[in-house]
Each structure stands twice: as structure tokens, then as C-alpha cells.
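User: I'm putting together a teaching handout on how multi-component assemblies are represented. Below are the sequence lines for each component of a complex, exactly as they appear in our records. Could you produce the 3D structure of the whole assembly as C-alpha cells, so the students can see both representations side by side? Please keep the chain order the same as the input.
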Amino acid sequence: MNVIDKIEREQLKSDVPDFGPGDTVKVHTRVIESGKERIQIYQGIVLSRHGIGVNQAFTVRKISNSEGVERVFPIHSPKVAKVEVVQKGKVRRAKLNYLRGRIGKQAMQVKQSKKAKDA
Amino acid sequence: MSIGIIGKKVGMTRIYTDKGVAIPVTVIDVADNVLLQEKTLEKDGYRGVQVGYDDQKEARVNRPAMGHFKKHGSETPKREVREFRLADGEATPETHPGIDTFEEGQWVDVIGTTKGKGFQGTVKRYKFAGQPASHGSMMHRRPGSIGCRLTPGRVWKNQKMPGRQGNYNRTVQNLQIVAKRPDDNVLLISGAVPGARGGYVVIRPAKKKNAPAAK
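Assistant: Of course. Below is the structure of the complete assembly, with chains in the same order as your input.
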């Protein structure tokens, strides 16, 4: 096996949940403040997943104080402690960049997936 | 000066530290470095060792070269043979320490041959700005004026002009050994290293940053 594949595979997390664009997620990030580590939660809609293997990352958008905020998290970084799926969304494309132009209530609304609705 | 190691660039990837910092690293294969000839003060006027790396078919080397490899204890011929100088009073190693030449966290210099770009114009080669592309301009990527008139009546030396770019020998100083993987015989070195994948590189202890880094 290729050495680079091997090095990268060792760093992959095994407990990454299945999520994709349109899902609302809570990202638990490790923050070090004045020597102490604590968990900070960032919640928003996943706009896209990009990259492959150890380089894979995802973009999460939320509206904070009526200002759009986007953060990109590398999935396999130790700083991302956990990803929690709050709600499954039903979308028809891989990149939800059209959400950026939306204002007000619409900005954070994506259709719920059928499974989630029934449940 | 001390002994270094010859390797082959495998490619690049990233390593996450425990703190979550992603370090870009170059993976360098350093398997089976062997010591060949020893250069002595009496015979050669300086002290050093010859190191060989990467096996090669016997049919691909001529007999004198094969004799040289056999004489110094290498059954197979090597593709890459380099020399490392030894400092005064430094003991001559009996065998090549291989991957243990360096410790994790140590600073190193990496020498390699950059990717060849062929014959390139001044825009790519020297970052000339270029001129307008359209509105009747026919000067888009041309170098422009290369000098004056009757005085000096010639083109100055070192005037930047189109020509061959790349395929140079280059040294990158002060890179750090991020990790060693003895099982795979590879070193992970921070940052980029000259050359394409599969190219040979020489790794030596850093000339200008010798103290092992505090981890």
C-alpha cells in the first residue's frame, strides 16, 4: 500500500456521523482559553463537504446577530471533538451557496428530509 | 559536517498534532542507504564517505562501476551515489545509520533538483508584469525594452531574458523532521522540498540551525 495512504488512514476518525449538505449540525470544537480546554458548540446548516481523505472539510453557515457567519472545519482535525446531526435536510444539490443570498427567515430554512418528518 | 542520507520524494500530506495544528509534510523514502567508499586524508586529501541509494539492475551499469559497488560490499548497483564530508575528529561510521541518522524534531537541510519548466518567457521566469492584451496592443507577454541607445551601445550583463527555467539544484534550509516511521522507512519533513515525486533528495543536518528543537 502507498505510504501516504497509510499515513492518512491512520489519522482518519472512525466515529464521523453520516451528514451532508442541508443538514443542521452542532459542531463541538475544542477551544483552549487561558490554559484550559473547553468545548464550544457551533450550530448551523452544512453548505458543503469538500476535499477527500484526511483533507476533507465541511462548511457550516449560521446567522449570528443578523450577520451571516461561515466556518470551515476539517473533519479529521483533533480540534473538532464531535459532530452532532440535529436535523436532516432534503436538498437537491451538493453546494448550497444559494443560501448566502437569502435574507430573514428563509436564510436558515431547508426542507426537512422525509425520514425526519415521519419520525 | 556529518553524514546525511539520500532519499526519494514520495509526496506530500498533512499531519495533525495533538493540539490540532495541521502541519504540511513531505514524505521521503530513505530505505537501504549503504556506505560505499571511504575517503581518507592520506589517499584523497579529505575525509568523507560515499553513500549509495536505490537498487538498480546489474545490466544497467558497466563493469568498472559494478566492480566498485562489489568492492565496497554492495551486491546490487545503486542508482544514486553521493558523498558526505566528515569533520575533523569525527569517527567514520561502520554502517549507514539509515533512518536513525536524524532524530524527531531535528532541523535539516534538503537538497534536490527542482522541476524543469523548459524554455520560458520573462513573465513566468522573472515575474515581469507584461503589457496590455487587447485594443490593438501586440505587446502582451513580450519583455519590452532591453536597454538604452548609443550609450552604452550594448545590452547590460545579467539583463533578464527568456530562457530555460527549472531543473536547478536547490537547497531548502531549516526544515524540521516531524516524524520518523521506521516500519515504512520514511521521514516526514515539514514543508515543501524541491523536485517532483520520485526525485532524489539529499537530507543533511541543518547548517545554520543545529540545536535540536524543543518539542
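A couple of points students might notice: Chain A touches chain B through 15 residues (CB under 8 Å). The mean pLDDT of chain A is 86.
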